[in-house]
Specification:
- The protein is an all-alpha fold and 157 residues long.
- The protein contains six helices and no strands.
- The chain is elongated and about 115 Å long.
Length: 157
C-alpha cells in the first residue's frame, strides 16, 4: 500500500515537473508560424526531458530523456496542428446539420423532426382522443350506476 502511494507520488512529481519545465521552455511569440510552434514544442520537450532526467534519474539518462521528450513535444504539436483547423472552423460545422437532424431526415428512421405547429397539432389530437375515451368511460359509469339502481329497486320489491 505504501509502495503504491510512493510510486504514484513520484510519477506525479515527475510529470508535474516535466510540464512545468516544458512550459518554461516555450517563450510566447506573437503570431507564430507553424514552424515556430514545432520548434518551440520540440525545444520545450528537449529541455524538460533533460532537466527531468537529470533530477530524477541521473546524468546518464539526460540524452535519452532529451530524445524521447523532444519527439513527444514535436508529435504533440503536430497533433494539435492537425486537429486545430478542424476545431476552429465552426462556421462550416454550424452550416452542416447535426447528427440528430441527419438521422431524423432519413426515411427509415423512427424519429422525425417536428415543427412547433406539427407538435401542437399532434398534442391536440392526443387530447381529443383522451377526451373521447373519458366520455366513453363516463357513459359506462352512468350505465353501471343505472343498472345498480335498477338492481337495488328490484331487490327491495
Amino acid at each position: 500500500m505504501l509502495v503504491g502511494r510512493l510510486i504514484s507520488l513520484c510519477v506525479g512529481a515527475r510529470l508535474g515537473s516535466l510540464e512545468l519545465m516544458s512550459q518554461l521552455g516555450k517563450t510566447p511569440i506573437p503570431n507564430p508560424s507553424p514552424r515556430d510552434k514545432y520548434s518551440a514544442s520540440t525545444i520545450g520537450g528537449v529541455s524538460a526531458g533533460a532537466l527531468t532526467a537529470a533530477v530524477f534519474r541521473g546524468r546518464s539518462n539526460v540524452i535519452p530523456g532529451m530524445i524521447v521528450w523532444g519527439w513527444l513535444g514535436l508529435l504533440g504539436q503536430f497533433a494539435v496542428g492537425v486537429l486545430s483547423p478542424r476545431l476552429q472552423d465552426k462556421s462550416e460545422r454550424e452550416s452542416r446539420p447535426s447528427l440528430l437532424d441527419r438521422f431524423a431526415s432519413m426515411k427509415w428512421s423512427p424519429m422525425s423532426k417536428l415543427s412547433d405547429e406539427e407538435y401542437q397539432q399532434m398534442l391536440k389530437e392526443r387530447l381529443l382522443r383522451i377526451e373521447a375515451e373519458m366520455a366513453l368511460v363516463d357513459e359506462d359509469l352512468a350505465r353501471l350506476k343505472a343498472s345498480r339502481v335498477t338492481k337495488n329497486d328490484k331487490s327491495t320489491n
